[in-house]
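INTERNAL AUDIT FORM
Audit reference: QA-55
Scope: verify that the stored structure record matches its stored sequence.
Auditor: D.O.
Record contents follow.
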Amino acid sequence: MGAYILRRLLLIIPTLLGIMIINFALVQFVPGGPIEQILAQVQGEGDVFAGIAGGGGEIASGGGAEGYVGGRGLPPEFIASLEKEFGFDKPPLERFLNMLWNYMHFDFGQSYFRSISVIDLVLEKMPVSISLGLWSTVIAYIISIPLGIRKAVKDGSTFDTWTSAAIIVAYAVPGFLFAILLLVLFAGGSYWQIFPLRGLTSDNWEQLSWGAKILDYFWHIALPVLASTISAFATLTLLTKNSFLDEIKKQYVMTARAKGLTESRVLYGHIFRNAMLIVIAGFPAVFIGVFFSGSLIIETIFSLDGLGRLGFEAAVARDYPVIFGTLFIFGIIGLVVGILSDLMYVLVDPRIDFEKREG
């Protein structure tokens, strides 16, 4: 198993390289780079973002002064100075190689439009996304797996029918609509002011005791986590049920029952190990989906400043150091989570040996 993990870790390098090459190449053809936006700001037109923070500009697209529509009427020396400050005076290949060299030293540069380094910016936003992604995934698994097993055992019963109806409705409701509903009902929208509207903690969090800090934290994330969990919960429950139903019908289950084993022993001693493999296989997709993909809308609705909003704002502003830095970090997290999923396979069923399968 050690050799397999080592090979998977080494595969991270070419995978990340491929991701960065493709995205860097695509960026070269995207109009409206950061210099164009700054020139538009100078001339009082176009999208306006904060002023230049300067520094670290080897990761962007853009040509000479004649390539900037917003540069008409402005001195070429001014545009040339912007190109030099952002690093656009260098060829694309040189910028890309410089970027990779810096990333090898975990130097992700500085945001174009914020006076902060990319790594500090990511660390600043990380608690929000970790809170949403981690707790949503944990809650989804804690609820969905027992519920899916129960539905499989009671297949066709009234319990199965009603819970299936509730799950279908939950899956059909868009996450953002459910978030707005929670906001209106429980965050002072029109009815009850039970939960806070924004932030992970209260303003006086530092003055609270440890117990009060924990309660305050969960009080703030209750609604966002619930809104993030709803779709993953529905999918995971049906996946668990179908996986267990498929295993229940197999010959080895009939043999175990014929030997006189209790239903509980058959279910959790024999069926559980095999049925859970497909559920575990979906863990990386569930975690990454909640952690990254579904966070933007939830963060916006509940006024949370996390990685979802950071990535969106960076894309709109063409803040390339932030875009590529977060892409690199997210890629590493996704690949490592995939390796952890394989380790969970072995933990659930020790008979699985990835090294023999590869051989």
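Auditor finding: record pair retrieved intact. The radius of gyration is 25 Å.
Action required: none
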